[in-house]
Amino acid sequence: MTPDTPIPALITAGGTPAPESPLYQETLGQPRALLDMGGMTMLGRVLHGLSEATSVGELVVTGLDERYWAAIEQPRPVVFLPDHGSMVRNIQQGLAYLRPKYEAECPVALVCSSDIPHVQGFMVDDLVRETRPWEHLFYYPAVTPETMEVAYPGAGRTYVRLQRGLQLAGADVGLVRYELLDSDPQLWEELTAVRKNVRQIARRVGWWVAFKLLMGRLAVEDIQNTAVRLLQTDRPPQLIITPHAPLAMDADKPHQVALLRQKYE
């Protein structure tokens, strides 16, 4: 592996807002990845942004129903994988597809959601450069409220309060070592299902961890140690505080969709 070896990117594009969802009036039964962003689908914007990164090689989209594949604007050939019914299973499917092709040369894949249309190549290149030589199990970027509000005033993102007043909103792109596939897949399904319920999180990760999270006393080291314990690995994850707000500015709510569209007006 050389420093300029491109890494594959896995883009998750599953998810169709239900009638009770705040985004239903925007999507009307269509996948969220097809939201219009200045005359291009949101997924198309993400693919174009990733294709600008010199650090990114093959582009693979997972989770989007086959009938929509032809509607996606492709800056270069893209591999589409079928929807497996959940975000976790779609990520597992994508990593399993990439692993035999790339792991021997490069131990990580970039995983990115389809709802950060302002992502640009240089932002991804900065992230890849900062995470080398990829010794951690996965890398999860995050942004502070100050970074987000300068770029997107009134973004309304949700922030996790950590120790010493640190507040962070998770980004929608990160790097993952393929060996994460060897961990318990049921654990990932459970954590994804309960991620917004502190009581259920406590049952899975431990009450003391949940209490510290609730009280704003959780340290980054606590998160790393909990991940090591649950995943039974000797490779802790690594937090990256990024200066690039677009990596965490997703289209979760109607006002966020409107905010993102302003760039194309």
Overview of the molecule:
By secondary structure, the chain is of the alpha/beta class. Helix content is 35%, strand content 16%. The protein contains 10 helices and 9 strands. The protein has helices spanning 24-27, 42-51, 87-102, 121-131, 145-151, 185-193, 198-205, 207-214, 220-231, 254-261; strands spanning 7-12, 56-62, 79-81, 108-113, 138-143, 160-161, 167-170, 173-177, 238-241. Strand 6 (160-161) and strand 7 form a beta hairpin. The longest helix has 16 residues, at 87-102.
Give the topology string: H per helix, E per strand: EHHEEHEHEHEEEHHHHEH
Tally of extended strands? 9
Could you estimate the helical fraction of the residues in percent? 25-40%
Radius of gyration: 18 Å
Strand content: 15-25%
In terms of topology, how is this protein built?
Layout: E1 7-12, H1 24-27, H2 42-51, E2 56-62, E3 79-81, H3 87-102, E4 108-113, H4 121-131, E5 138-143, H5 145-151, E6 160-161, E7 167-170, E8 173-177, H6 185-193, H7 198-205, H8 207-214, H9 220-231, E9 238-241, H10 254-261
Parallel strand pairs: 1-2, 1-4, 2-3, 5-9
Antiparallel strand pairs: 4-8, 5-7, 5-8, 6-7
Describe the structure concisely for a colleague.
The protein contains ten helices and nine strands.
Key features?
alpha/beta; 35% helix; nine-stranded mixed sheet; 10 helices; 265 residues; globular; 9 strands; single chain
